[in-house]
Amino acid sequence: MDEWGKRLQLARQWVAEVNKRGGNARLIYLPEIGYKGNTYFPVSDLNNIQMADLMAEWLKKMKATSVAFVFLYSIISTLLL
Fold first, then answer.
1. How many CB atoms lie within 10 A of CB 9?
2. How many angstroms separate the most distant Cα atoms in the chain?
3. Where are the domains positioned within the chain?
4. Which pTM does this prediction carry?
5. Which positions ≥6 away from 55 have C-beta within 8 Å?
6. Is residue 23 classed as helix, strand or coil in its secondary structure?
7. What does residue 37 show for φ and ψ, rounded to 5 degrees?
8. What is the pLDDT along the chain (81 residues), one digit of tens a residue?
9. CA end-to-end span of the chain, whole Å?
10. Dihedral angle at the C-alpha atoms of 65, 77, 51, 25, nearest 10 degrees?
11. 2, 10 in Cβ contact below 8 A?
C-alpha cells in the first residue's frame, strides 16, 4: 500500500473511532463521489465552485449554526474572488 493509501486507511479508522465514541465524523473521499485530481486547497482548484457547493451542502446536513455557515461561506466566497 502506498503512503496515501495508508493515510486514507488511518483517516477511515479515525472516523470510526470518533463515531464509536458518540461523535459525528464523516470522511468525504472526493474520488469516491466523482471528483478526481483535487488538491489540499479546494478553493484553488478549477472546480472550486463545486467544492464550495459540496461544503455548503455538508454544513446544511450537519445543521451547522448560521454563524458557522456564514463564516465558512464568507471565507470561501472571498477566496473565490
1. 11
2. 41
3. 1-32, 35-81
4. 0.63
5. 42, 72, 76
6. coil
7. 90, 10
8. 788 888 889 889 988 998 899 877 788 888 888 988 888 777 788 988 888 888 888 878 877 655 555 555 555 555 554
9. 39
10. -30
11. no
